[in-house]
Amino acid sequence: MTSPLEALRRPVLAAPMAGGPSTPALVRAAVEAGGSGFLAAGYLSAERLAEQVTEVGRDAEIFGANLFVPEADEIRPEVRAYRDRLAAAHPALAVPDPHPDDDGWQEKLEVVREAGVPLVSFTFGFPPADAVHTLHRAGATVIATVTTAAEARSALERGADVLCVQGPAAGGHRGTFDQTVEPPAEPLEDLLRSLRGAAPIVAAGGLTTPAAVAAAREAGAAVVQVGTALLVADEAGTDPTHRRELLAGQRETTLTRAFSGRWARGLLNEFMTTHADAPAGYPFLNQLTGPVRAAARRAGDPEAMSMWAGERYRDARPGPAGEILERLVRSHG
Ligand SMILES: Cc1cc2nc3c(=O)[nH]c(=O)nc-3n(C[C@H](O)[C@H](O)[C@H](O)COP(=O)(O)O)c2cc1C
Questions:
Q1: What residue ranges of the chain have pLDDT lower than 50?
Q2: For the chain, how many structural domains are there in total?
C-alpha cells in the first residue's frame, strides 16, 4: 500500500508523548525538518485536541494524532487497596476514588475523523474494525502500536495500515495490548525482523543515535519514531524538573506500574521504589496518583513525579528539535 509516510523527505517521526512533552511546536518542527510527528491526545480534552489539530494542520500536510484505546471498566480489589495505601501515606492530599474513564474516546475519534488528520495511531490496544473503517473513509492512515508479533497480527486483521513496533528500551508507557501481562523484552531488531514484509513498519524504542536508527532501518523499519531524544528539545513541553533530571543523567531507568497501573519506563525515584509492587489497573492508578504527582511537580520534587525516559536517555541533547532529528536521520536523496 502507499502511505503518506513514503512521501517524507526524512523517514522520522516525533513520537506522541502525552502529559506535556508533545506540543504543536514539536510536531511542526519535525514536519519542517522533513519528517512528521504526532500530537498526543492522551489525557487532553477533546476540545484541546481539536485546537492542537487546527494549529498544526494550518501548515502541515502530513501529521498525526495518537489516541489511548480504552480499557475494561472493572475496578479490582487490589486497586482499592492501593488507593487506601496512598491515602494513608498522603493524608494532606485528596486521593480520589477510582472511577471508569475512557479518556474521551468517541469524542477524540470524532475530532480526528472530522479534521481529516492524515495519520492516526493507537496505543494500549487497537480499536475494532468498524472504528478503523470510519477513519479509512476519512482518508486516514491507521497505525497500530505493537510490542509482539501476535499483537501485530491482531491489529492487521482489524485493518491497521502500518505497524509502530515498540521495543523494550522505549520511554514512557509500553503499548502492550493486555495490561496484566509483563511487557515483552524481545530486542527491537528481532521483533522488526520477524515482522518484515507484514506491513510498512515504524520502529520505536531506544533510537537516540544515527547508528541505532540505521540498525532499525536495516532490520526492516521504513520510518523511525523518536521520543526520548526529543524530551529535552527546545519545543518539547517537558516539565522543568523532569528536564533537569534527564540532563543530570544520574538515574537509572526502570519499568514501573506505580504511577498509572500500566508498565512504563522512567527515571527511578523514591515513589517507584516504595510502590514497586503496584498492581495492574490503568487508568485507575493514574487517577489515584494524580494529586501526588501534581504536588511533586508544583514543589519541583523529582522523587514523587513520573519522569518517563527511555533506556538511552543520556544521549538526548538540548537544542532545536529539527536539528536533533536531522542529526539522527539523513535526508533521502
Ligand atoms: C514522556 C513520554 C510520553 C509518551 N507518551 C506516549 C503516548 O502518549 N502515546 C504513545 O503511543 N506512546 C507514548 N510514548 C512512547 C513513544 O511513543 C515511543 O514509543 C518511545 O518514546 C520510543 O522510545 P524512545 O523513548 O527510546 O525514543 C511516550 C514516551 C515518552 C518518553
A1: 1, 333
A2: 1
